Amino acid sequence: MLRKKSKSPTWNRAGRPENVSFLPVRKTVANAVAATLLIAFAGSSFGATPPTSQVDTTHLAVTDTEVIVGQLHSSTGTMAISETGAIEAERLAIDQINAMGGVLGRKIKVIQEDGGSDWPTFAEKAKKLLESDHVAAIFGCWTSASRKAVLPVLERDNGLLYYPTFYEGLEQSKNVVYTGQEATQQVFAGLDWVAKTKGSKTYYLIGSDYIWPRTTMKLARKYIETVLHGTVVGEEYAALGSTDFGSTINKIRLKKPDVIYAAVVGGSNVSWFKQLKAAGITGKDHTLLTLSVTEDEANGIGGENLLGFYSAMKYFQSLDTPGNKEFVKKFKAKWGAGAPIGDVTQAGYEGPWLWKAAVEKAGSFDTDKVVKAEESGQISFDAPEGMVYLESNHHLKTRLRIGEWRADGQADIVYTSDYIMPNPFPKGY
Amino acid sequence: MGGYSISDLWSIVVMQGFSGLSLFSVLLLMALGLAIIFGQMGVINMAHGEFMTIGAYTIYLFSKVTEQYFPALMPYYFVIAIFAAFGIAFAAGYLVEYLLIRHLYKRPLDTLLATWGLSLIMQQIFRTVFGAREVSATLPDWLMGSWKPTPDIDIPLNGLFVMGISVVVTAAVILFLYRSTWGLRVRATTQNRVMAGSVGINTKKIDRVTFAVGCGIAGIAGATFTTIASTGPTSGSLYIVDTFLVVVFGGAGSVVGTVSSAFSIAQAQSILTFFLTNAMGKVVTLLTIIIILMLRPEGLFTSKVRK
Lengths: 429, 307
What we know:
The complex is a heterodimer. Chain A is of the alpha/beta class. Chain A folds into two domains: 24-36 and 49-181 and 337-397, Rossmann fold (3-Layer(aba) Sandwich), CATH 3.40.50; 183-313 and 399-416, Rossmann fold (3-Layer(aba) Sandwich). Chain A is built from 14 helices and 15 strands. Chain A has helices at 24-41, 52-55, 80-99, 119-131, 144-157, 183-198, 211-226, 246-255, 267-278, 295-301, 303-306, 322-335, 343-362, 367-374; strands at 66-73, 107-114, 138-140, 161-163, 176-178, 202-208, 231-238, 259-263, 287-290, 310-313, 379-383, 386-390, 396-397, 401-405, 411-416. The longest helix of chain A is centred in the N-terminal third of the chain and has 20 residues, at 80-99. Residues 1-30 and 32-47 of chain A have low confidence and may be disordered. By secondary structure, chain B is mostly helical. Chain B has one domain (14-237). Chain B contains eleven helices and two strands. Chain B has a two-stranded antiparallel sheet. In chain B, strand 1 and strand 2 (155-156) form a beta hairpin. In chain B, helix 1 (6-41) crosses helix 9 and helix 1 (6-41) runs antiparallel to helix 10 (255-275). The radius of gyration of chain B is 20 Å and the shape is globular. Chain B starts with 5 loop residues before the first helix and ends in a 12-residue tail after the last helix. The model of chain B has no long low-confidence stretch (mean pLDDT 85). Chain B: It is found in: Cell membrane. Chain B: It comes from mine drainage metagenome. Chain B: Keywords: Amino-acid transport, Cell membrane, Membrane, Transmembrane, Transmembrane helix, Transport. Chain B: InterPro entries: ABC_transp_permease (IPR001851), ABC_UrtB_bac (IPR017779), BCAA_transport_permease (IPR052157). Chain B: Its main location: membrane.
């Protein structure tokens, strides 16, 4: 059901057939017209800029100098806290691409829409972007709920979405590229690491009560029990927005798990860590591995409350590579020195670059051709996190890193995994 | 409970008892301001959470300024900032009453819509001024960590602090309402506005100050909660449901009712959450409240309020 087939690919979203072959005579005429246009409009740089008729056969918003893309995040409402970073990073990537000459010789112009943290609004705005703005691609969504709302629209109108958040997996659409990690990439390697370095046997799982933590914890429990031969001594879900963790923390104290494995999100996350610290559970004598704290969240929680705890992410701002240092410098120059860069922010930055690579490989903005390029297995990008490879299942092959939090809200990377193949539909889970 | 030693269990009982008390003081602090506004004036203030957020951001600003210019004062700024939080939220409440609420006293249900709209406006203002990201005030050291009476027991210092503040604020509210001339006038206006006006009480001024005091207390609550929870544009909305729950369950217009309602909800929730799961704990608590409200629609304690 998740992988609903889109409409027959020979029909574009305007309802016109895409692959009607022209008669030889008409083709000659068309070529002649193109040649005339070439003489009429082409500047010296024409060689790099193929004519619009060639790169866009499906009536997308592409002109000889410009291509329009959409950006669809929440800049208002409760999710604005999280989505701001992705918005900023996507803008930075687009600016950089434009400074390099754009995509297929065309400058990227952005139409930004606000999903307002409301899922039906996301679907509506996606429809607007695809059906009246005819954008070539959309960079957007953050929560799984917003992605699920947008998905039917994307598949009906045959649009493209680049989705930046690490998420629960169990989804693959030809119209979406997932630049964040799916659950198996984030969970298994992290658990392996903690079992190996800390010799942990007992685990306490705690998450917020919605699809991502629940699916993730289900994977984690199975992995702990069957592969690591450990025990899950407690599994608990707190309502979204819940601010009281006193009783939960007492239960954890009673069970004395070797590892607290956490996926609490949003405002609750701050309460959770502040109350842990106040209850005397700190990184000094407890091991806590979380899946939901990036530099963005650390900023709100306060580094002193996280000190010594671990996060499993594919990217940390402190990553010590020339590529990342350059990225951090550019990001801060554009958005201010105080702006933290988290995992999702960096994944957002990858979106426009991967799209550019796919479009250039396809030699066209047409959705079906771009999708074919995406699925070719030959798209890669030298991202701040290191090389990432777009696999034929629309997810990225990446590494997982474990960061140990410092008091200043930055993390020391204590472990980097090998490349992990994305596997959105793990068998046996 | 096999496998646990007696001392383990004892320390859990102590800490669990404390966590119930600490939730009680959180609920009480949230609800006091609203109890005054809703209870005494009948105004349904949906923006209560946002006045709490004002208090939280006040702490954040004070912490930043102190860190920047008076680092030596870091251990003490929090106390001053709490008074400032009261002052700023009081002023904001005063203004809101003047511009918005006073035009709606005759239409109590419309205050619900108007203040809800106000809460959205305030959230967006916070977002524009402070940014959409959550912020964190640097707390003084004496508020962090825990007190260990025995090696197994950790009593959270921030929990103790919240408790202390809520005792002080409750006492102040009771003194204000029942021992001051001003409180006498407030109660008179609550019971019979026309009669109160005819004996020379300036009921409009009473309304304005009562509303502002309620908002000011919300500011204190928000300031205090920076020690245990998040500070962001929408933090306030996390509290609004629980706040109304406490006030309605306790019975509008009764401080005693608010206190006992906060106590019973907190203890029920805390104990049930310990033995059941988080979600079930909440479900059972809410079901019980619904049943009690069906039997006693006016809440636990009732007093005559302005109709």
